[in-house]
Design brief:
259 residues, Deoxyribonuclease I, Chain A, 6 helices
């Protein structure tokens, strides 16, 4: 089973690239972030034409998350937010979607950016991460053998090596953000992709030739519970997807699970 995450940065602008990626790789379940559309605006037909179905969650032209999955799969227990997901300005934004595929609980999450250390969005970001970790911890306490993954754009670079130049950043690398990310490890989740693919970036800004210069960040992750980590056979970071015409500024991260 192949599971992937990709911040597509507008699915309507990049539907052809995403569909081509699915055709090329045969990914079974793709968690997408920043789809930037409402469900009724999602380009379903293009996915259906290649044998995929879609569950989309979006409120407006910002944020938004979705799953694209092979049509024979039967998603269970679909949720459009996690327990106690925080709101921003009284709105629970479209930043999380969960479903169970073949017994694997998958959450596609788009963590708030934070914007600046003193911005209200930073407190929102830290609260989002804290509640997501707390909710996951409760689920693992109830079922230690639960196969669960949190995947998506976390907007945190946990290690210094995850950023091409620390002096260029204030957010994403701050101690509160890194501590909030470390909480996922403390509750028993693992970043197996880092072990298999050290030193790789997943995001490059569009500005100042960041991609050709490899001025990137590693902020997209697939975090897995112990039982699921033990099933990971291989992983890839699809750097080629940052090339060509009209790419997203993020690239897919893929894991392969044993049967």
């Amino acid at each position: 089973m192949l599971i992937a995450t990709w911040n597509v940065n507008s699915i309507r602008a990049r539907v052809n690239r995403v569909v081509a990626f699915l055709e090329r790789t045969g990914v079974d379940v793709l968690g997408m972030q920043e789809i930037k559309c409402k469900p009724e605006q999602f380009p379903y037909a293009e996915f259906e034409a290649i044998g995929y179905k879609v569950i989309a969650h979006g409120l407006n032209q910002w944020n938004g998350v979705a799953f694209a999955y092979k049509a024979h799969l039967d998603p269970q227990d679909i949720e459009m937010e996690f327990a106690q997901q925080p709101s921003f300005k009284d709105v629970v934004e479209a930043r999380a979607i969960g479903a169970t595929f073949n017994g694997v609980r998958i959450w596609s999450v788009y963590v708030p950016n934070g914007r600046a250390l003193d911005d209200p969005h930073m407190q929102y970001k830290l609260e989002f991460l804290d509640r997501l970790a707390a909710t996951t911890a409760e689920q693992l306490e109830m079922d230690p053998d639960l196969e669960i993954t949190l995947l998506g754009d976390f907007n945190v670079a946990p290690l210094d090596s995850d950023v091409y130049d620390l002096s260029m950043f204030e957010t994403h690398i701050s101690e509160p953000e890194r501590q909030a990310f470390e909480a996922f490890e403390q509750i028993g989740l693992t970043d197996k992709v880092r072990e298999l693919l050290p030193g790789s970036y997943t995001y490059w800004d569009y500005k100042e030739l960041c991609f050709p210069k490899n001025n990137g960040m590693r902020i997209d992750f697939v975090l897995t519970s112990e039982t699921l980590t033990n099933r990971i056979q291989s992983a890839s970071i699809e750097r080629e997807e940052r090339k060509g015409e009209g790419p997203s500024d993020h690239v897919p991260v893929v894991i392969e699970l044993s049967d």
